[in-house]
Inverse folding.
């Protein structure tokens, strides 16, 4: 009787992964095996459902231009921003003296209470001389949130003078001194 110690069946990436462990295949006869009438006796099944949720806040680092491009999309939360900060801190290519372009034009919803925005402004990730441009698009709500963050930088002891909010990407690129398009994030 053939024995299989582990079989992994993968469906599309948005489907569950099924792992069959210690499965034994038996066949009643050679003819039944030929017509795919096998019996499968499963001793243990593990089903893992991946959380394939897209990351709402990604980044790319351009060492040559000394630039970090951060891109938000979908629903953005405080936890997403903190996770983004943690990923940047641990990235060996990150340099706190780099400039940052934050593109939030694809954010559809921001779940950022005002006290959390002030708390995020107290986190020191970039140096006080780094230029940081925040692009929010034409939404007055997102513009107001970004301005609240910018003003909180002034009150937190970090130098908010090097952070500015923009409605369009071209103005932000010009302010940062970027001639060509910035790199895309994943």
């Amino acid at each position: 009787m053939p024995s299989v110690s582990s079989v992994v069946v993968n469906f599309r990436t948005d489907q569950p992964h099924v792992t069959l462990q210690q499965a034994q295949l038996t066949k009643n006869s050679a003819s039944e095996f030929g017509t795919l009438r096998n019996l499968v006796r499963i001793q243990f099944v593990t089903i893992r459902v991946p959380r394939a949720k897209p990351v709402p806040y990604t980044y790319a680092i351009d060492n040559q231009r000394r630039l970090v491009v951060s891109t938000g999309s979908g629903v953005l939360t405080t936890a997403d921003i903190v996770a983004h900060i943690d990923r940047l801190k641990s990235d060996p290519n990150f340099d706190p003296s780099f400039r940052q372009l934050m593109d939030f034009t694809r954010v559809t919803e921001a779940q950022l209470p005002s006290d959390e925005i002030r708390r995020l402004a107290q986190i020191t990730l970039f140096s006080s001389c780094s230029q940081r441009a925040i692009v929010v698009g034409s939404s007055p709500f997102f513009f107001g949130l970004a301005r609240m963050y910018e003003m909180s930088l002034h009150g937190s002891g970090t130098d908010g003078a090097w952070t500015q909010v923009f409605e369009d990407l071209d103005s932000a690129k010009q302010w940062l001194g970027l001639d060509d398009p910035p790199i895309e994030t994943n």
Residues 1-49 have pLDDT under 50 and may be disordered.
